[in-house]
Amino acid sequence: MSDTSDKLEALRQRIDQLDSDVLRLISERASCAQEVARAKLADDASAVFYRPEREAQVLRRIMELNDGPLDDEEMARLFREIMSACLALEQPVKVAYLGPEGTFTQQAALKHFGESAVSLPMAAIDEVFREVEAGAVNYGVVPVENSTEGVVNHTLDTFMESSINICGEVVLRIHHHLLVSENTRRDKVSRVYSHPQSFAQCRKWLDAHFPHAERVPVASNAEAAKLVKTEWHSAAIAGDMAAKLYGLERVAEKIEDRPDNSTRFLIIGSQDVPMSGDDKTSLVVAMRNQPGALHDLLEPFHRHQVDMTRLETRPSRTGVWNYVFFIDFKGHYAEPHVAAMLEEVRLRAADLRVLGSYPKGVM
Ligand SMILES: O=C(O)C(=O)C[C@]1(C(=O)O)C=C[C@@H](O)C=C1
């Protein structure tokens, strides 16, 4: 045998040994999770098994401990799947997302809950809320803002009519590809299908490369991918999941105009999430229609040194010219300085609802 094959043989033996160790340790961890489940049940027959704050702490700790050669995100992704499988042993988690299959929202659901979660596509954002409210699923995943295109108004508006909480957030880097079926050649593309937001995110690239192609907006990127599967001379703008699901070819990859294009999704549920150590809170506040109302709302944030990360205004659905504010800030409602600030804002507001405190997105 050559030196190289001797070396390969030795390395593979070492890998086999390490795999046995990893296998034993993962099984030990899974048994521990089963014990955790028994302890939770002994304490409370209707115990909640999924613990977003604990999951965030586990993943943050792994990323801190990691010294490579795998990068932090990759390592967190592996542990995400281990935890997902452990949670499924305790109780399989059911998640509704804005479908159809192959959307970025499904990708976000998988990134957050891992592959062991059961995910169910819904046709509209309000349907995701309804399924969670009815208890048909444990959690829901809906898009809330894109770094290029801004807020998803429909999601914010639905919170006004719902008592659902926010239990988490997940941020996804959005990469769009130009996809065709195997029968279509790049120089023959005369029509492009996509979701209006995706067209907006790839406008400059399309103007430069396909200025004469007709742009046809459809309900989702996955819908666009499905259409071109059976249509010649047409292309879809969609992401990895849709490309894989419909077996499409990539004419061009990562065609989004901004390389940092990302979308934030919310995890909704009925759970109240304890502090994780790095949390955010979302609020909806209605102010009285009078001069200085916005100043009155913002002043306690400044005085208590609470860092606001987002402020959105939406027309209230209850009266003409009345507005409500959606506010995100750093911190958990149970932290004393946050609680004090919230109490002051509550006294000044016509109405205030804490939509939830939840761990800042980890991966
Ligand atoms: O710590 C817990 O409460 C567990 O149930 C264990 C565990 C894990 O595998 O680490 C599993 C599921 C929870 O969502 C959080 C963590």
TrEMBL record:
One of its GO terms (cellular component) is cytoplasm. The record marks 263 as: Essential for prephenate dehydratase activity. Pathway: Amino-acid biosynthesis; L-phenylalanine biosynthesis; phenylpyruvate from prephenate: step 1/1; Metabolic intermediate biosynthesis; prephenate biosynthesis; prephenate from chorismate: step 1/1. Residues 282-359 form the ACT domain. Its EC number is 4.2.1.51, 5.4.99.5. InterPro entries: ACT-like_dom_sf, ACT_dom, Chor_mutase/pphenate_deHydtase, Chorismate_II_sf, CM_dom_sf, CM_II_prokaryot, G/b/e-P-prot_chorismate_mutase, Preph_deHydtase. Residues 94-270 form the Prephenate dehydratase domain. This is Bifunctional chorismate mutase/prephenate dehydratase. The lineage of its organism: Bacteria, Pseudomonadati, Pseudomonadota, Gammaproteobacteria, Oceanospirillales.
